[in-house]
Amino acid sequence: MSLQLLVNALVNAALIAPPAMAFSLLFGILRFPNFAIGAYITVGAFAAYSLNVSLGLPLVVASGGAMIITAVVVWLTHVVVFRPMQDQSPVTLLVVSIAAAFIIENVIRLFYSADVRGFNIPLERPWKFMDARITREQVEIIIFSGLIAVGLHFLLAHTRIGRAMRAVADNPMLAAIRGVNATWITAFTTALCGLLFGLTGVFAGLDLVIEPLVGWNLTIPIFAAAILGGIGSPYGAMVGAILVGLAEEATFLIIPSTYKVGVGFAIIAVLLLVRPQGLFGTLEIKK
Amino acid sequence: MPEVLLETRELTSGYGKAVICSDVSLKVAAGEITCIIGPNGAGKSTLLKTIAGVLPPIDGQIEVAGRNVTGQSAAEVARSGMAYVPQEANVFRQMTTHENLAMGGWIDEQRTNAARDEVYEMFPDLVPLKHVRAGDLSGGQRQMVAFGMALMLSPRILLLDEPSAGLSPLMVGQMFDTVVRVNGQGVAILMVEQNAIQGLKISHRGIVMAGGQIAMEGAASDLLESKSVSELYLGSRT
Q: For residues B91 and B114, what is the distance between their CA atoms, to the nearest angstrom?
């Protein structure tokens, strides 16, 4: 396995780890697989594009703005679409989330067309290390992704609000009995995940291209990472992202890159057959 | 007459339009253990959930230490000095014992460390399990964590929903000992129990529920001796 393959795998993992952790956090609190996460990522990419290219703001500022805009979109989608339907079954909510994703993506397509775009950043030669090449943006993606993982761990393990998030995800009724305000925790988690989806949109714009399906194309690897790690477990999602990233790049050695998306599907299919609870999840036994 | 800590007046509750218990009026005095027994479907657990604020009442009134808590959320009721231990899913399985106890003191974080020390003093068996996930504990250990969590806010009254459910016969005895020990600290207890004989044996008062209503109440020792209660709810003891 070449060093370049490992570098690519690391970048790939760094790209899908934050949204996989966010997806797992959201699943833990809301109890349904939200297929709109791809659309949220697309919102982040286009918001950053508008602020950076149309308004001429530096990418750092545009990224911050895009994260906030995405958080607002995610929160509003939750309040307007998902909260009124919270008593419905997870399957119903899953279908609703697919509809929400189509609506968001097509609103973006309406305003921006299906053209491929990129950020206004100077072109630089990739850095060369031994026989591997890596761009400055890719290094930044890896560093930020690592910082997010550490930050999320600190939040969940060492802060009051993080404990409350875990409590609501673990046992919402008991959390309410112990005085945790689940409505507030849900709003906070939704907004936090929105920030992460927004940042992923920026990452995707840096490493891939900006187009209306940029987020949708990441959805399957994100789902695969979250399921591999044990759905609902943000730490598992982090490990799952690394393994999916590695698997996607490793398959380049034996199959054409066109079939990269199939790797995520294959991982999901095998896991659901062999270990449906994922690597770090626990099986719930219903009596 | 000792202070009345909990009083319900003509309390009616259920799920949606289905009324499960109706017109339940009861009193629990400071320092006493009251055991509610009755057949399955009598509305015992529904009554406890309603008192704890988990289920909104349809009608009637609930007072805790003279304060009206009718219709208040579980979180608000927890602030009134009453703690509830549900029958199932009464711990955070993904959290350690230590974290579970911290969640028990969630609404008064200033006191968490001191309260946790008190709980460990009361349940020394939990000390070596501090960093073990509650989901990995045995049924009896989990029940201890659930008790400890409920005691974190130093409640004056504890609501226990079938604390012996799912425990081995040996653990059932230990669990009832724990209930008596907690009561000995001055905590009044209102307990729903399927294990009617043992439940009544450690209780001061007993309530028999049937069809969602109170069918009989009195001193626990009297209920134990009552022929009709014995035939209907306690099984054959002869």
A: 20
